[in-house]
Write a structure and sequence with these properties.
Blueprint lengths: L2 H15 L14 E4 L2 E4 L2 H8 L3 H12 L3 E4 L2 E5 L4 H15 L10 E6 L2 E6 L5 E3 L5
Antiparallel strand pairs: 1-2, 2-4, 3-4, 5-6, 6-7
Helix pairs in contact: 3-4
This protein binds zinc ion.
The site of zinc ion has 8 residues, from loops.
């Protein structure tokens, strides 16, 4: 048994004890469906909701990261091309790390604000603030 394991274990326990409801945050899972030359995230609105982000913001991120065009249709995101579900899952995690989770305290209770034309991620839980990439 290594020290790292001990650390992981104690961190896991402290997360369980955390009274903050955000401690129970669960990463949303994208429901991906291939449709001919298109790829659809069926529960896109739900995923954006979980992150408390605008659907347009999340969509822009995917457009840039996957270098393809996309549109919103009734809460679903439709991408041009065949995109592997595993890639979408990975990009979703990237989005969460870059635009949702606070790097200071690790909580997802954050919001995006604009300051001097810079987009900032502000944490409700600890007050930390950091500049984020603009997706415009
Ligand atoms: Zn924080």
């Amino acid at each position: 048994m290594t020290d790292d394991y001990e650390k992981l274990l104690s961190r896991g326990l402290s997360m369980i004890k955390d009274p903050n409801p955000a401690g129970r945050f669960e990463m949303p899972t994208a429901e991906v469906e291939a449709h001919g030359q298109k790829t659809i995230i069926r529960n896109f609105a739900h995923v954006a909701d979980k992150f408390r982000r605008e659907q347009q913001h999340l969509l822009k991120f995917f457009q840039k990261e996957l270098a393809t065009s996309a549109s919103l249709e009734n809460g679903q995101a439709v991408f041009l091309g065949n995109i592997k579900p595993s890639l979408i899952t990975r990009k979703l995690a990237d989005y969460a790390n870059e635009f949702v989770f606070c790097k200071q305290c690790g909580q997802p209770d954050t919001k995006i604000t604009t300051e001097d034309k810079n987009e900032m991620l502000v944490c409700w839980a600890c007050g930390a603030k950091r500049q984020i990439r603009s997706l415009k």
